[in-house]
Amino acid sequence: MHSMLKEAIMSRNVGTIDRLMRVAIGAVLVALALAGVVGGWGYIGIIPLLSGAVGACPAYTLFGFSTCAKKA
Asked: pLDDT tens digits, residue range 55-64?
C-alpha cells in the first residue's frame, strides 16, 4: 500500500506544454511580486513554478487528471 501511495504522489502528470506554461506564469507572478508591481499575492506563483519544475500537480493526482502524452 505504501508503494502505491508513493507512486501516485510522485508520478508525473503534467505534460510538456502545461509545464512550460506553469513555469512561465509562476516566474512572471513572482517577478512582479518582487518588483512591487503586484501585492504579496504574487508569491502564489511559487506553486505553479514548482509544480511545473517537478512535473507533478497534486490537484491533478487528486482528480485523476493528466496532461502527459499517452504511452503506447
From this structure: 999 999 899 8
Q: Cβ(19)–Cβ(50) under 8 Å?
A: no
Grid cell, residue 24, equals: 512561465
CA atoms within 13 A on the CB side of 6: 3
pLDDT in tens, 27-50: 999 999 999 999 999 999 999 999
| One-letter amino acid for residue 40 of the chain | G
Q: What is the DSSP string of 26-42?
A: HHHHHHHHHHTSS-GGG
SS (H, E, C) the chain: CHHHHHHHHHCCCCCHHHHHHHHHHHHHHHHHHHHCCCCHHHHHHHHHHHHHHHCCCHHHHHHCCCCCCCCC
Domain ranges for the chain:
2-63
